[in-house]
Design a protein that fits this description.
By secondary structure, this protein is α+β, with helices and mostly antiparallel strands. The chain has four domains: about 20-140, Sandwich (Immunoglobulin-like), CATH 2.60.40; about 160-285, Immunoglobulins (Immunoglobulin-like, Sandwich), CATH 2.60.40; about 300-425, Immunoglobulin-like, CATH 2.60.40; about 480-595. Helix content is about 25%, strand content about 40%. It contains eight helices and 31 strands. The chain has helices at about 1-20, 420-425, 450-480, 480-505, 510-530, 535-545, 550-570, 580-595; strands at about 25-30, 30-35, 40-45, 50-55, 60-80, 80-95, 100-105, 110, 115, 120-125, 160-165, 170, 175-185, 190-195, 205-210, 215-220, 225-235, 240-245, 250-260, 265-280, 280-285, 295-310, 315, 320-330, 345-350, 355-360, 365-375, 380-385, 390-395, 400-405, 410-415. Strands 22, 24, 25, 26, 27, 29 and 30 form a seven-stranded mixed beta sheet that branches. Strands 11, 13, 15, 16 and 17 form a five-stranded antiparallel beta sheet that branches. A four-stranded antiparallel beta sheet has the order 1-3-6-5. Helix 4 (about 480-505) packs antiparallel against helix 5 (about 510-530) and helix 5 (about 510-530) packs antiparallel against helix 7 (about 550-570). The protein starts with a helix and ends in a 6-residue tail after the last helix.
Length: about 600
């Protein structure tokens, strides 16, 4: 019996010694912290189960939280061979109080009856205002550690915020600048809704498609955050001076955790907390384009190339032909105006047609613009077409660049047909001699004696008076811009809803909710005469009540906007059917149109 007990104890001791040999106990802490900031120290025990953890005191700092225990376990099987690993982390949150360099002693934990310790380390607390030189500085909350996201912890502006970032701070008119509105958070988010969008007064906007999901991690000011791009767009300033993108307001619901110990270890229960977040504003300095501007400059800014062509090769009179210009490059392609072409006066020329093919690339729009000038030669012969000029401003070189096409010597052969009506109306000022036989009759009465004679005077006078009344009425209506917007609000909203229907049929939920929200917000702005800069949920509800909209219909407006905005920023959490949302939005606009305004 004694021999059996001895063998059993030997086996147990060998097993414990093997476990202790495989285990590691390490500490993770910042080297430097700034006075007044919070920081985290984590002790990690790998491949063992520990007990009786004892943490050392940290001089110059006050302990705020901990130790919080979190446990993880993983197992893998590769080629039939199984392996596993486990980890226990003891997290402590401190606040730096007194500047100086302090030595932190060893922490200890019991593993299988043996005591394991960490190595002592030093930490430097810098005076307030100095920046710590390490990336482990923390505000006390870690996006990856729910133990630091306790429900009793105050959510500060350092834990969740929205930044408006500009790719450049100093640019020229019409030069592209990328604006990114990005959410930074250390907490999971269950709801996110914009109550006031930033305004882009003075800019033309080219929005870029975005899917605002918290799938990326970014380090900012030495701390790690989950980030999502709420909006990204390319802006083209239309005036010089200092332009400001105003801040936006957002309602956010974050998820914190109530942690407590049980027989099964440390458990966490999610708790939602509602916050209001306001973004920063961003300012860009816009320089005017240099003077003097070339006569052929029409607002193109970027870097471009120019080519031309004439089709068909064999030209004939009274047959349509095309003179094409192709502008390729990077810049404000969508806003380029067609160059002026000096066609021979013997050509019947029609208005040019622009075709733009552009896509975002490197913070600007890259692609091509094709301008087709349709002309019809009216006479046979040889004609000369002077080179076309296209001038653009290159921000990289800060110079105007003028490009020219080749000159064309065109040979026009006689073709079948007759001069076009468009040409004869523009050029013919003397009518051809009448060559047919004339039938003459002797007049038997005076024209002034007939009723028809006087009607030729009275009816035009009455018609002129009616047209004058109608014209003056239209002038008064058009002068009232707000009233015109109100009258056209439904038509504009219906056009936007048609785009939303197309995205719905393509099952593109992100684009669908964007267009639906655009239709609803635009309709409210036009219908209620609310300027875009003052468009907010509170203003809409107040104006609906002043307009005479009932409480039930006002609640429907509020619910529809909530549903669309929530689905836009958190599509993975929305379970709404697109067809139902579309029908609800269309019905809402239709019902609002039926409401008569209070007098």
């Amino acid at each position: 019996m004694r021999r059996i007990i001895y063998i059993y104890c030997s086996i147990m001791l060998a097993t414990v010694a093997q476990v202790v040999a495989a285990a590691t106990f390490t500490v993770h802490a910042p080297r430097q912290v700034t006075q007044g900031n919070k920081f985290q120290i984590t002790y990690e025990l790998k491949d063992a189960e520990g007990a009786n953890f004892v943490a050392p005191d940290v001089e110059g700092a006050t302990k705020l939280y901990g130790p919080a225990l979190s446990t993880s376990y993983s197992a893998t099987i590769v080629n039939g061979k199984a392996s596993s690993s486990s980890s226990q982390e003891y997290s402590m949150i401190y606040k730096a109080e007194t500047p100086g360099t302090y030595k932190v002693g060893a922490a200890s934990v019991m593993v299988g009856g043996h005591k394991m310790t960490t190595k002592p380390f030093s930490i430097e607390i810098l005076p307030s205002g100095q920046k710590a030189d390490n990336s482990r500085q923390s505000s006390g909350t870690s996006y990856a550690n729910p133990m630091t996201q306790s429900a009793g912890h105050k959510v500060s502006g350092n834990d969740i915020f929205v930044r408006i970032q500009m790719s450049k701070q100093h640019i020229y008119e019409q030069e592209a600048v990328v604006c990114t509105i990005r959410l930074y958070t250390k907490y999971q988010i269950s709801q996110f809704m914009a109550t006031l969008q930033p305004s882009f007064d003075g800019f033309l906007i080219e929005e870029l498609p975005q899917s605002p999901n918290l799938n990326n991690v970014e380090s900012y000011n030495g701390q790690n955050y989950m980030v999502a791009d709420l909006k990204k767009c390319i802006l083209y300033p239309q005036q010089s001076g200092k332009l400001t993108i105003t801040s936006g307001n957002y309602d956010v619901t974050v998820v914190q955790y109530d942690t407590y110990r049980s027989l099964f270890g440390t458990l966490s229960q999610p708790v939602e907390k509602k916050l209001q977040v306001k973004s920063n504003s961003a300012t860009v300095v816009i320089d005017p384009l240099p003077e003097p501007k070339p006569a052929s400059f029409k607002g193109a800014v970027g870097n471009f190339t120019l080519s031309s062509s004439v089709t068909p090769d064999a030209l004939k009179t009274y047959a349509a032909a095309t003179y094409g210009l192709t502008i390729k490059g990077t810049g404000n392609l969508k806003y380029i105006k067609a160059p002026d072409i000096a066609f021979p006066k013997q050509f019947d020329v029609y208005d040019p047609q622009n075709t733009v093919k552009a896509a975002a690339s490197g913070g600007n729009m890259t692609g091509s613009v094709t301008v087709n000038y349709t002309f019809i030669p009216q006479f046979a012969g040889k004609f000369h077409l002077d080179p076309a000029e296209f001038t653009f401003f290159n921000p990289a070189t800060k110079r105007y660049v003028t490009l020219k096409t080749e000159a064309y010597d065109l040979s026009v052969a006689k073709g079948a047909g007759a001069p076009t009506t468009h040409y004869t109306q523009q050029t013919a000022d003397i009518r051809h001699i009448h060559k047919r036989e004339m039938t003459l009759t002797k007049r038997q009465h005076y024209a002034v004696e007939s009723v028809a004679y006087w009607l030729w005077y009275v009816l035009p006078a009455l018609l002129f008076a009616a047209l004058l009344v109608i014209y003056r009425k239209q002038l008064r209506e058009r002068a009232d811009v707000a009233r015109m917007k109100t009258k056209r609000a439904s038509k504009v909203a219906q056009k936007r809803l048609k785009k939303a229907r197309a995205f719905m049929q393509q099952n593109d939920s992100a684009a669908f909710y964007t267009e639906t929200l655009s239709a609803l917000w635009g309709y409210m702005s036009d219908k209620l005469r609310i300027p875009v800069s003052e468009l907010s949920r509170d203003n809409i509800i107040a104006e609906l009540q002043n307009y005479g909209v009932g409480e039930e219909l006002t609640d429907r407006v509020n619910r529809t906007l909530d549903k669309c905005e929530f689905a836009q920023y958190a599509p993975e959490l929305s379970g709404d059917n697109l067809a139902d949302v579309f029908a609800e939005a269309a019905a809402l606009i239709s019902d609002l149109e039926k409401v008569n305004k209070k007098k």
